[in-house]
Amino acid sequence: MSGPTADLFADDALQQPPRREQIGEQSYVLRGFALPWIDRLLPELRRVLAQSPFRQMVTPGGFTMSAALSSCGALGWTTDTHGYRYSPLDPSSQQPWPALPDALRELAVSAAADAGFSDFAPDACLINRYVPGAKMSLHQDKNERCYNAPVVSVSLGLAAIFLFGGHERGDKPQKISLFHGDVVVWGGVDRLRFHGVMPIKEGVHPIMGPQRINLTFRTAG
Ligand code: SIN
Ligand code: FE2
Fold first, then answer.
1. Domain architecture of the chain: domains with CATH
2. Ligand 1 proximity of 129 Cβ (cutoff 6 Å)
3. 219 lines ligand 1 (CB under 6 A)
4. What is the pLDDT of residues 163-197, one digit of tens each?
5. Does the beta carbon of 195 sit less than 6 angstroms from any atom of ligand 1?
């Protein structure tokens, strides 16, 4: 190709960041990976949240988490003064959590495959809602029964700075900006790395409004 069209493509190639960024030996940020699913995903997410609304949970240490939580799938993650655990029932209603919608499962399975984890079979999707100022302290995801499966994390709405640390709480974390539609996958040797989210900055996202919603898919049971 030559002429103005070729230049246009060359410029595009220079300006577009790589779609898949490796952030650990077996960890990737998949930029915009969720965007093709958004139109199917949002109505399903609304149905899930109508059945199991966001609620603020208390940690075993007695702190109220700044992110509000819900879940869908066979197992949902909960915390209270007795500890962290997965449960088949939503503690607010004592009913099973909403089923994991097909669009969410397909997105998670295909993101995992893109990051090198075939046969991902998530049975839990934790839904976190962050309003500006809300954050998630550094932690490991370790309430799952085994760590063979990766964690697949989908970001929607306001941007966040994701902290991706090492295997020790004190290891200096990488700071990674995450935007609407980005997916992070960590597994294998990186499965137990510490991670968290810095306080969300004020803002209004054109589709999601003044909030960030994060979905994390795991094989918990
Ligand atoms: C989590 O670690 O459960 C949430 C991570 C995120 O909100 O990006
Ligand atoms: Fe986590």
1. 20-218 (2.60.120.590)
2. no
3. no
4. 999 999 999 999 999 999 999 999 999 999 999 99
5. yes
Other C-beta atoms within 10 Å of 45: how many? 22
Model pTM score = 0.92
The tokens of 197 are what? 């989210």
pLDDT digits (tens, 9 = 90+) for 63-86: 999 999 999 999 999 988 888 999
Name the nearest CA neighbour of 215 among 31, 25, 67. Answer: 67
The answer to whether the CB of 136 is under 6 A from ligand 1 is yes
Ligand nearest to the CA of 213: 1
Q: Which ligand is nearest to the CA of 196?
A: 1
pLDDT for residue 1 is more than 60: no
Contact between 176 and 162 (Cβ < 8 Å) = yes
State in Å: Cα 161 to ligand 1 middle.
Answer: 11
